[in-house]
Every structure is written in structure tokens, then in C-alpha cells.
Amino acid sequence: xxxxxxxxxxxxxxxxxxxxxxxxxxxxxxxxxxxxxxxxxxxxxxxxxxxxxxxxxxxxxxxxxxxxxxxxxxxxxxxxxxxxxxxxxxxxxxxxxxxxxxxxxxxxxxxxxxxxxxxxxxxxxxxxxxxxxxxxxxxxxxxxxxxxxxxxxxxxxxxxxxxxxxxxxxxxxxxxxxxxxxxxxxxxxxxxxxxxxxxxxxxxxxxxxxxxxxxxxxxxxxxxxxxxxxxxxxxxxxxxxxxxxxxxxxxxxxxxxxxxxxxxxxxxxxxxxxxxxxxxxxxxxxxxxxxxxxxxxxxxxxxxxxxxxxxxxxxxxxxxxxxxxxxxxxxxxxxxxxxxxxxxxxxxxxxxxxxxxxxxxxxxxxxxxxxxxxxxxxxxxxxxxxxxxxxxxxxxxxxxxxxxxxxxxxxxxxxxxxxxxxxxxxxxxxxxxxxxxxxxxxxxxxxxxxxxxxxxxxxxxxxxxxxxxxxxxxxxxxxxxxxxx
Length: 485
Prior knowledge:
Elements: E1 6-7, E2 10-11, H1 12-19, H2 51-56, E3 74-78, E4 93-100, E5 119-124, E6 130-135, E7 148-149, E8 155-159, E9 180-184, E10 190-195, E11 198-206, E12 210-220, E13 227-231, E14 236-241, H3 243-246, E15 249-255, E16 261-267, H4 273-281, E17 291-297, E18 302-309, E19 317-319, E20 325-330, E21 335-340, E22 346-351, E23 356-361, E24 367-372, E25 383-388, E26 394-399, E27 404-409, E28 415-420, E29 425-430, E30 436-441, E31 447-456, E32 462-467, E33 470-471
Antiparallel strand pairs: 1-2, 3-10, 4-5, 4-31, 5-6, 7-8, 8-9, 9-10, 11-12, 12-13, 13-14, 15-16, 16-17, 17-18, 19-20, 20-21, 21-22, 23-24, 24-25, 25-26, 27-28, 28-29, 29-30, 31-32, 32-33
């Protein structure tokens, strides 16, 4: 009789048969999905080794092909043209500034914002003096975030009041909906109030004929646009894009120096980038899924490249004078980053002050200035960080006002104009020596947002020459074409 022995429940005969079975070919385990495509809860901590790993494993977020959309502007109210209160002089350069009703808690009583509504302000670019301003009626007040003008300098655009969509019009907004005011640049009186499907954030001139605008994603109609191209002659939207086709949440947009491409700051969908960036500071979040920049070809509204960057929740894009690199910041982790436009590689990443917002390059392209606004840091920033554009090394930390957000180089290439939301002032620096030249209070200490320079030729014809989208109208001091005044 044959005896069968059992080893851990397996018969010796079976074990022998297993030992002499034909060898089984080794199978390569499936490659893990790229980190950038995983839900935040599924990424093992030990896999997060470097940003370069994220960049090389990047999975495209946007849809392929033309993702352009349109939106029909609704005119809510119109006003007759009023008499001018300002007459520009031929050969002069002026600065336009929109201000709001906000301020900062840490301000003395004599410097509290006394404005009850938005205000349009005009300054002489050479003397820094306020020469005209008008406060809008309180019922037209909105949440102002930029100063946009038409390319010919005739019209100002700023955020208007909250609208309630009439029955039967566009889809109801998912949140309180803003509007846009079109204002005469000489009378500073409103001309038109219209609905563009969202609440205006930033605007800038593009190709010297249109205005590039973006809406706050959380205050947009279902059929509205997140980035849009406005024709100021007809007040119609020529086209735009939505975050539904971009693969994430659109924050704000920037035209490159050629005007052929629009670079869009993108946030991961499913949460607020601003809130998440703040939560990393309080340890409520350990990390956030990567943020990125999308490059959109304006001719056909196609995303041609995506650039992940090693920072949380950027607010600004600034291009190098040769348009080979762009700078992007991280307000959630206090850094400034330089990226190669062709390859997407990170050239350098450097620390800034708390919550950087605006970025600007000085007149000879050697310095990059970052406004340490305090974005996502309770808005308590009051410095400007200056970094060597080539090496990424620190040059200086400059004192500033509370909540400086926009920094714009003057068209002569000699001055940096910085807007303070918290103190309602403009701080003006020498762009080469970094010395503070002037502090200009806004009327009633209205919180300042954005800057636009308008130049008039010897015949009195105006044109925008600088705004948050850099230089226009043939002016470019960084490339040997300054406008002297």
C-alpha cells in the first residue's frame, strides 16, 4: 500500500508534480498609473519623490481640438455720453486706476477707505499726481479686481453690481452673478452695463484691437465663459473657453507677447484652489494635486501645451523679454518659478515672501519682482521680493504696503508701479535701483486694483501702451523700444 504524506495540507505527490511542472513565464506587473492622474487619496506618499516625476508623467487634462465657445452679451442698461472732465494733452502719458471699497484691518482711522462705491482715477504718469476721479453711484458698485481699457484708451472696463438673471434668459448662475461696466475714459461716467455670463476678474489688451477677459469660475452662468475675447467696438464676445473642456478650474489668463497664444492658470477640479492652498498652511491638507498652465492657440481655441509647475495656486504669469520663458508663482507655498516655454522644464524655483501675487520684470530684464501680497496667508503681506532673472538668486526684499498685488513696469522702463489693495495707495519704485520714489494715496483710500498706461500722440490720439498684459502699441522698453516722457 502506498503511503501519502501531507505537508501543510498539500500531498507529497501533488508537491512532486508541481516541482516537475513546466516553468511558467514571468509576467511583468502592470505599470502604475501616473501620479498626476490619481485621486489625491490614492497617491502613496513614497511615490512622491520629485516634481520632475510629476512633469514627465503628466497626462493631458484638456480636450483635444477646438474647444472655443461663444456667449451672447446682454445689455442691461445704457447711459448717454456725459461731458468730459478730463482733456488729455498731446504727447502726454496717463495712468488709469480702478479702486473699490475694501481695505485692511490694520489701518489707522485716518486712512480707512471712505468710498461707498467703485471709483475711476486718472494720474499723470510723469508727475504721479491724481488729476481726475469719479465715484460711481452705490447701486453700481461691484467687486473690482483690475483696470482694463480698450486699446484706443476710450473706454474703461470694471466689475459691476450683482445681477439677477431675468426669467427666460441665460441659465441661472450657480452663485451670485456679476456684471461689467463700460465707462467713458474722459467723463469717467458709465456708458453701458452688460452681462457677459460671469463676474469679471482680470482684463488686458491683446493684439492692439481686443480685450482679453476672464471670469471668476465660481460666479459664472452655466453657459458662460471662463476666458473670453471682447470686441470693444461692438461689445460682443468673439469667442472663449470654459473649464469644462480644460480639464480643471480656470483661474485667470494672460496673453503672450505675440498675442497669438493665451496662457491660462489652471487648478485641479473638485475643490477651491485658494482654500486648499490656505489649508496646507494650517496642516488641514498635506499636499494638493498639481496645478498647471495651459497654452491656448487663439486662432482656433486649441490647447497646444500644458505646463505643470511645482507650486500651489498661482496668480500671475509673466514672460521674459525674449519670450522663451515664463514666470509663475505659488501663493500657497511662497515661491517664484521660471519655466522654459518650449520644453516645460523648470529652470529654477525660489522662495518669496508670503502669498505672492503679481510678477513683473524690470526694464533690462535682469530682475523679477514678486508682490508678497499675503494671498492665502490672511492678506498680511507687505513686501516685494526681487530675484535675479538668470540665476534665481535673491537680490532684495523691499518694504511695501499691505496687499500689494499688481506690479506694472512703466512704458519708459524706469519705474515699477505697485497697487495696494489694503492701504489704497500706489507705491512707485525705481526699477533699476529699487529705491522707493513715491507713495500716492488714492482718493478716499480706495483699494487699488490694476494699472493701465495710456499715451497720446502729437495729434491727441490715444492708445494703451502698458497694462497687466505687458506692453502694446509698438512700445517695449525691455527690447529697446521705450516711450520717453
